[in-house]
Every structure is written in structure tokens, then in C-alpha cells.
Amino acid sequence: MTIDFNYDLNNIVHFISKDKPIAARKFKNDLIEKIKKNLINPFHFKKSIYFEDELYRDYIFKGYTVVVKMDSENETVFVLGILKNKKIF
Q1: Is the pTM of this model over 0.85?
Q2: In sequence order, what E strands does the chain have?
Q3: Could you report the per-residue pLDDT of 20-57, keeping only the tens digit for each?
Q4: 4 and 80 Cβ atoms separated by less than 8 Å
Q5: Please, are residues 59 and 45 in contact by the beta-carbon 8 Å criterion?
Q6: CA dist 83 to 26, 32, 72, 74, 75, Å?
Q7: CA distance linking residue 2 with residue 42, whole number of Å
Q8: Are the CB atoms for 49 and 56 separated by under 8 Å?
Q9: N or C: which end of the chain has fewer CB within 10 A?
Q10: Is 23 helix (H, G, I), strand (E, B) or coil?
């Protein structure tokens, strides 16, 4: 997971925690758990709407879009960022 993803996620969690701290913690834990579980087959995610390259994929979680990039050569997946209601990544 990249620094940008962690920064974006912490901002979202902070925003949610203003009203519901327990829900914010649960959101973060559930998201990380689901990402780790589902990254086994990242090609099952839909092609990213933010990038033309087939190696970028979007994973949708509770209305948020997590953008991942696959590195086939090194067999690595990078979690680039998380966003909601943004047209530009």
C-alpha cells in the first residue's frame, strides 16, 4: 500500500470518526481485510476509469474506489489510492 493510499484512507477515517468513531475503525479494518483477501485475483476487478492501461484496476468498497496497479513482471500489486466522487485521480 502506497503512502498516498494511507494518507487518503486516514483522511476518510478521520472524517467518519467525527460522528462515528467505532464505524470509522470498522470501515478501515474491513477495507484492509477485503483488499488483502481480494488482491489474490486483481484481474477480477473492473478496468480503471482513471487510467487507459489494463494494469490499473478499480476495486469498489462501500461507495469508495480503490485504485490498484499490477506489476506483472514482479508479480506485485500496488494499492495507489482511495477516492469517492472524484473525476480525476
Answers
A1: no
A2: 46-47, 56-61, 64-71, 76-83
A3: 999 999 999 999 999 888 888 888 899 999 999 999 99
A4: yes
A5: yes
A6: 18, 15, 24, 26, 25
A7: 16
A8: no
A9: C
A10: helix
